[in-house]
Amino acid sequence: MATYVLVHGAWGSGRSYRRTAAALRAEGHFVHIVTLTGLGERRHLASPAIDLSLHVRDVMEVMETEGLDDIILVGHSYGGMVITGVSALAGERIRALVYVDAFLPKDGQSLWDLVDDGTRRHFIETQRTHPGFVAPLPDPPGAPPRPRSPHPFASLVEPVTLTGREAAIRRRVYVYADGGSPTAFDRFRDALTGDPDWTLVTLPSGHLVMVDNPAGLHAVLTAEA
Hints:
By secondary structure, the protein is an alpha/beta fold.
């Protein structure tokens, strides 16, 4: 049986993975869902001081407290920034990295560097009403309502720092959701197409893959077990 650690995206919570976690646990796998500090059920801890390093620490604390090794580490959207940071601290403890329609930073890049000018304007303009935080981007038309929390701005501008420890990871998977193309994630799909070090999977889905296509995501994750 495999061990999974699941990390959600900006404005969200671990609740988005509930169906994914239930299906994996029913098969006997061990699943740990991380809700990042200041978001979801941890929104009472929200602070403008929350940065990417703290969110990386959230995942590291689960790994260390639970004594986890040989894990399949999964990150959705902004969660790609977080799992990249974790990989630089604990690459030898990670069996596979799975990016689910997620940002894939290079060394020294922040999420701010990876989004377009319109998204950056949104980040800045929402400081007027949410100082130190970024209000959620609008959901696409027809998307079901879901609870979301303002996201700490500092976490979006702190860059990832790689250390070389991430090179110990044997498997790297990128899941691209093709339901809303073009998207901010097209660039990562394009960059990884044909790369022998990556498995690129395209799923028919909106951006919230674990909600829109849980069966497809489940198949991807169990393939790494």
